[in-house]
Amino acid sequence: MDRRVNSTKRDKSGNIVALCNPTEAWSPRKLVDVVRDINSSKRSYYVKESDRRCYVRVVSGELQTTADRDSGNSLHKLPST
Questions:
Q1: Are 68 and 74 in contact (CB under 8 A)?
Q2: Nearest Cα to 66, choosing from 13, 14, 2, 20?
Q3: Each residue of 20-43: pLDDT tens digit?
Q4: Domain ranges of the chain
Q5: Cα 29 to Cα 50, 52, 67, distances in angstroms
Q6: Is residue 48 classed as helix, strand or coil in its secondary structure?
């Protein structure tokens, strides 16, 4: 099941600690749970940018999105809640 992410929660240092979509029951989802979901192929997460889905993946324990035309990581462009 794909989950659309449209905001993040960040700590005082600016690190992403949760992925969010306030209109969904699963939100906010803690970083450790997102990593577990992705690594187990239980769930997938994506950011919609320019009518294109940029999927979230785990790289060296950190979240990144598949590269789009404009940036390497769409998560950093999302607003923080």
A1: yes
A2: 2
A3: 999 999 999 999 999 999 999 999
A4: 2-77
A5: 24, 22, 22
A6: strand
